[in-house]
Amino acid sequence: MLNHVFVAIATAGIIFIIFHYAINYVTNRYLGIISELIKMNEVDGFDPVMLLRHLEPFLKRLGIRDFGYYLYYHNVEYVRRNVSQKKSITKFVHTAEYTVYIDIVPGFRYIESDFITKVLVEVIFLLLKADVNIQTTAAQKAFRKSVELQAFINHDVKNLIQFVNVLEFNLSQVDDDAGYRRFVRYMQKSLPGLKVRADKILSALNSTQPEMDTVPERLKPMIMAADAAGIYGVSIHTDTPADMEITARKRGLTVIIENIIKNFYDKSISERGIELFVDVSEEENAYVIRFRDNGSPIADCEKIFEPFFSGKVNGLGIGLFHCRNIAAGMGGRLTAENTDEGPVFILAVNK
Asked: What domains lie within the chain, and their CATH numbers?
């Protein structure tokens, strides 16, 4: 009798050990194959369509009877139907941007049935959902970048057209030798600025993102302002020495100065006789450039920096938004305020 008990205990122990090792074997095999699937997904660039196309051989190695899926995103459907009559385990999500559905029939072996199949369904579902979110987010970012780039190019082209209009106006005023000499001097001063604008547009067209300068250098902002003002025939009043230097990024500072002076020129067309005052000062932690005119006040000193908002009839509403972002990228800030002496744009560039 005692021997029978020992035999029963030994048998139970052997069965437990076999079962334990079988569970470990199956689990390790599943984890190894799932790890391969995850790695393949990474190699494919987290593309949900590629994941679905490569799914079948992995599931066959896992002993899955059959599977199906439905994926809808970017306005395209991807479908595989589960033709098995057996009970399946499913997972489903639907949003405004996409739909993900996965349907897997457990394997033939009992030890590999429901529980492990549920884990597998969760893994594949989460991979698909993550891939779709990654691709959707990337597409949205690319679209936003494309819209921004197009807007910036439109803005620069518009500036170029404005320059040509100014050139045409000045040419129409030439009626004697003195006027001709003035026009030649204007062209000598303006053509470098025209070349800079054309180069900016070509650079933007040949790049997926706006070119950025990252190394600050010693610059003379009053000379830069005078060069920009010369393009539009604008006079600047200042008490700041022309050779005063600040440390900033040249391309970013050039864009901001040109944009503010162009805005003054546009304003001076409807408000004849207004004047522009530009001054540079050095404060404890920043260089501050102030652009003030004695014309009408700014209607909303914060609204003008919002994208696609413009107080001008044909304005794109990009210039000042772009300039504020550039200033922030330079470690500075661009603001506007109304004073008793007139509206002021204030550019602070951190030292």
From this structure: 2-141 (no CATH), 150-350 (3.30.565.10)
